[in-house]
Design brief:
0% strand; mainly alpha; 79 residues; elongated
Length: 79
């Protein structure tokens, strides 16, 4: 389960604007150090605090055109 954007904002603000270490921020807000590191890194890299989308099949959209072409080619050879 994703943690709230409000919590993410408070952690990132404490580190970026408040000068707190990621370890200290993690301890203060009761999250893992890894989460604090990821959230700050994501904010610095992309300017976003919200979590990245999860779940779903991201690959099938790229694979579908190839599968259709192969199916059409295979079916054409069977006529």
């Amino acid at each position: 389960m994703a943690l709230s954007d409000d919590l993410r904002e408070r952690v990132v603000e404490a580190v970026v604007e408040g000068g707190m270490s990621r370890n200290a921020a993690a301890k203060r807000f009761g999250i893992s150090i890894a989460s604090a590191v990821r959230w700050v890194a994501r904010f610095k890299a992309k300017g976003e605090i919200s979590p990245a989308p999860t779940g779903g099949d991201r690959r099938s959209g790229r694979m579908r055109p190839i599968a259709i072409i192969c199916s059409v080619s295979f079916a054409a050879g069977r006529t």
